[in-house]
Amino acid sequence: MLRSRLCSAAISAAGVALVVLFMSACSVPAARSGGATPPPGATAAPSKQPKPSPSAKPKPTPTVPKLTGSVVPVNLPPQAGIGPFGSIKSTGSASIALTFDDGPDPVYTPKMLDLLKKHGVRATFCVVGTQAARYPALVKRIVADGHTICNHTWQHRMDLGKQSKEVILTDLRDTNKAILKAAPRAKIKYFRAPGGYFSPQLVQLAAALGMKSVYWSLDTRDWEFAKYDHGQPMVDHIVETVRSGARRGSIILAHDFHKPDTLMAFTALVPWLKKYFKLIPMPT
Ligand SMILES: [Zn+2]
Description:
Layout: E1 6-11, E2 18-22, H1 31-34, E3 97-101, H2 108-118, E4 124-127, H3 129-134, H4 136-144, E5 148-151, H5 165-182, E6 188-191, H6 200-208, E7 212-213, E8 218-219, H7 225-228, H8 232-245, E9 251-255, H9 260-276
Parallel strand pairs: 3-4, 3-9, 4-5, 5-6, 6-7, 8-9
Antiparallel strand pairs: 1-2
The site of zinc ion (ZN) has 7 residues, from loops.
């Protein structure tokens, strides 16, 4: 079990089994820890999910939404600016970067990799060290498929930025070691703090290890089940968020750790995004 990351609970597709998840919370705005500007629409971290009642009815299986409409996203102003403490929040080009955090997940990461491969799209995976150590074959596949690897700390510790230099360095190095053990030729050029909780020291120490800190500009908030629910409402929320917010230079934040709704949403979004933008892995 992922000790320090147990933050929320989810109901399985059958609606009877309680699956304990860690709250990815990659998208909790860094403002709450360090005065950075939260992303548009950011709200407080989600409250703990209530336990399902035994009589809860199973939800209908979500379907892939059809993306229609007259929005021409390339006409939106390009993404610019920088994230908390100098972190990156734009690709720096007209291209868009998809980023998937908190994996590898034994079920959903392979499915996401299959989806991306089907469309010839490469992305960026911000992996957690303990997950990389548990699923080295998936780390190897992420790299072999041409995606960019990003360090997302050893065990998703949200307060890592407040720890001593030694604790931070050990955490980041251990994570890189787990990645390199699985994929010795991986280039680990990026770091993303859990929850976006960068601190000046965290950014500086990541840089000392050769990693740029990467924030995001478009947050799917695909972990906020208390607000958007599971299943179709979450799928629709993710799709609409990206459809209305994607623009040149966007770095899009989503998750591959136990996120079936995210996978479903990107099944529609990847081909739609490809029509309007070039999708790139964060350049190494
Ligand atoms: Zn995360």
